[in-house]
Amino acid sequence: MAQEGTSLNPRAHFGRLRRLSTLLFIAMLASAGGALAQDPGPTPNIRVVLTGYGAAGYGAHLGDDAENNFSASFTPVALFQIGDEFLYESEFELGLEGASTFVVLEHAQLHYLGFERFQITAGKFHVPFGVWMHADWINKMPTTTLLYGDAHGGVAEDALFTILFDVGVLGRGKVPLGSMWSLGMEAMITQGPALAAADGHDDGHEEQEVESAPGHADILPAIAYGTNYSDNNANKTLGMRLRLMHMSAWTFDVAGFHGAYDAEGELSLSAGNVSAKWQPGFVDLRGEVVLLRQEFLHHGSREATSYGGYYLQASRRLDAWEPVVRWGHLLEDEIGGETVRHERRRLSLGVNYWFAPSIPVKAAYLWELDGTDGLFVEWALGF
Amino acid sequence: MMMRTALIFIVISAAGAVHPAEAQEQSDVARGARIWAATCNRCHNARSPLERNDADWSVIVNHMRTMANLTRSQAHDVTAFLQASNGEQNDAVGVSPDDSASSLRMFVHSHAHSAASEKLFEGTIEELRHLPRSEGAVNRACALPR
User: Does the model's ipTM exceed the 0.95 cut?
Assistant: First the structure.
């Protein structure tokens, strides 16, 4: 007869088995309870889409100092959707300049989209100011307007200022006004503009040799936009835009921003924008007016000057063809009787051929009434 | 007699009835078509629904929601329209691929608030019709005669 506790004793085996099973059961309960307490919820669905645009172009400045160049650029946009409420997007621009390739992080922004009529955006984003025509397949001309120019040091040589991107937080909201009208509202707080240093390394200190604004005499310091990554002062720029839209063809914008651009945070820059678009059927009419007020130090005292400009553009689709005309005007600015910004007037006549909604070939001739004419061709592709 | 009449009535009603979920989806698609026609060519040419699959459109429309400041409902409706028009899945709408375009056109015009807005949709659709490469796609989406 087998004794208890020996391998041959069934009662002992059953007892050990029961104790082992009990321990296992308790362990399972404990782990399950722990898992429930730490349950992170359903795994969010993550969807990734790569989009963006690219372009190749040719530009020729005519006249005595004629120069002409081919160009190429690639601007990928990566979209990351996490669940239904979170979106992250990032856009790079890669292009050719001089003897090198430049890379710009145009925007890198997070969105919360969980509200019905309100959105929150944080990161680097396009400032709500002016008509969006930045993408090559969206701009109906191969060149930018005189208001916004391309620049990769924050200062636009051939325009009022650069395409405006900045780092901060933005809130958007929209309310319907009846069945056909809506009012959109956007408000932002961002790093803001800064002094543009002559050597390209801008740390915002006024004592540093600063670059004079394009077109200005050595009186008015140049402002760099969208490159103030390590904020040069304790001041932040506030901005907002109101957009009134009719479902048919009208869009009206009023926008503005205000901030200090010097290291001490004492010299302010204010900008205002009014724009309108009318797009009935095949026709596209748009215009924009920008006015800036910039404070500066002149012989130790604070002064201010205002400058600005506008453009008007008209285009019409004729099947796949689209003639475009654009008139741009930067106003003259004087300080103490001295011209610090010369008048610039440009008439652009162009024609586009649309292979598809996002694939145009664009050609335009620019009459610079105060400078050198130019001929530009661009093939753009949005994907 | 009354029982037979009631039975006939019930059968006829059931034959023409649309499942509530399908009716809601068709309504979303119609609203989305209207928003797409009126909004998605403000900044750029409206892109053809056939360019992307359902999953991509759900992401891209949210990107466009931030650019165009659409409400959440508007983004949902535009997504429904694009997903219904891209040929990937028409079963949810309850119509065949060939019928979806006709349905969309009918819904767009039935939801136009005025003769002016109806003309707007005609103008927009007519403009889109002239896009050469995507003509087929746009026609399919907007039920235009070839």
Answer: no
